[in-house]
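Researcher: Structure for this, please.
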Amino acid sequence: MKRVPLLFLNVVIIATCGLIYELLAATVSSYVLGDSVTQFSLIIGIYLSAMGVGSYLSRFIDKNVAEKFIDIELAVAVIGGFSAPLLFLSFAYVSYFSIILFSMVFVIGTLVGLEIPLLMRILKDELDFKELVSRVLALDYVGALVASLLFPIFLVPKLGLNRTSLLFGMLNAGVGIWATWLLEPLIKNRTLTILRVKGFVVIVLLAIAFIKADSLTTLAEDGLFVDNIVYAKSSPYQRIVVTKGKTGHALFLNGNLQFNSFDEYRYHEALVHPAFAAFDGEPKRVLVLGGGDGLALREILKYKSVEAVQLVDLDPMMTGLSKAFPALDELNRHSFDDPRVKVTNGDAFVWLDNTETEPFDIAIVDFPDPNNFALGKLYSTRFYTLLKKKLQPNAAVVIQCTSPLIARRSYWSIIRTLEASGFDVKPYQTTVPSFGVWGYALVKLQPFETPSSPPEGVELKFLNRDSFASMFDLPKDLLAPDGEIEVNRLDNQALVRYYESEWRRFE
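Model: Predicted structure, token format:
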């Protein structure tokens, strides 16, 4: 009976490791594929169904149950431990990533589904059935809770995805070796030695990979990016990569291009200056939501009338990138050093809801595209209602709104959401070679005339009177499509569904 509590501890570890592998697969998928909601849901569904398959298959294991349990534990250690590095490498070098992703999830789920029924059969002679089932299931859910807390709070921020995967592989292998002592009376002596040797080999291989995890990440990223990687760091929120090629530096967040220094001025001039052109008077207070690279700040600080700029960005590593990477500091003209700029790291939704501040004359909203629910909330009626409370009555706001050519319904969903929130909206677009046709919305709280030219006396590389006016003249293929376009609300997240279906055509 002394071994029973220790075997119950195995249940917690099995459940923890299994859920960690599922979360790893879903997170790797989100990093490389843009956090597809459907993808995340499929991974959860496949994993849970695979556990059911594993539980069913356990009925066919009649002999040497203890040995089979340890073999399965070591198999989970190898496949689960190497899952994150293999998925990153697969995405970089093969074209059928989704097949590998779902197959790996299914295999891991099946193996985890096999483990707990086998462990229950090993313990059936130690406890009565009612006690056994209640304890195993309770501890299974405890393990899931441990994993769900550890994964986002400690593991990914401190270790990264690859090292987390490999660490839990070593933990699984350690459990397998430990089980050879706990279950020693049930295993033949010769088989016992073989199992222990296999377990130590697995741990050594995983430990070597753990030490070389940065090299594995570099190998995968070398396959993902055409140009040379000159900076790469993982924050608790995203993977930040900067490359350098013939056209200049490019910033990628979770593999998605954010700007190229060759043409970013087109994007940021179009983002910032229409708001200043639409404002009646000389703006003094400016709010920037997102924009942690400081490039929108560079354009804002060209205006002498601006006295204060409040920038709110979730990731401190992003707003600190200018200090860590001098080339960006040069590109944004040391904008974070300007005494007029105040930086707050936090969720913009929460900041708008909880922060008391003087109203702003200009707001620039420069969030990543709404490819998941966490970002989708930043394009919702609730978010825009909160934003309105932070504005002067005559304030002007610009929102980046994804590509109206590639994601036409997504673009117009944002426009309709702004209108439903009480804004008067002027849609516009420009062409940025790195992105293609890109869309924005210029909005105010009261009806207003479309500005016809950029403000005078401001240094501009792209915009002049003609190019400025042409941005508001939408071609026919960018106009609102036929049929109803849903407003994006917190309780429907229609925009995320539009975005996912439209951009998936180009994956």
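Researcher: Any notable elements?
Model: The chain has three domains: 3-220, 225-259, 265-504. DSSP finds 19 helices and eleven strands in the chain.
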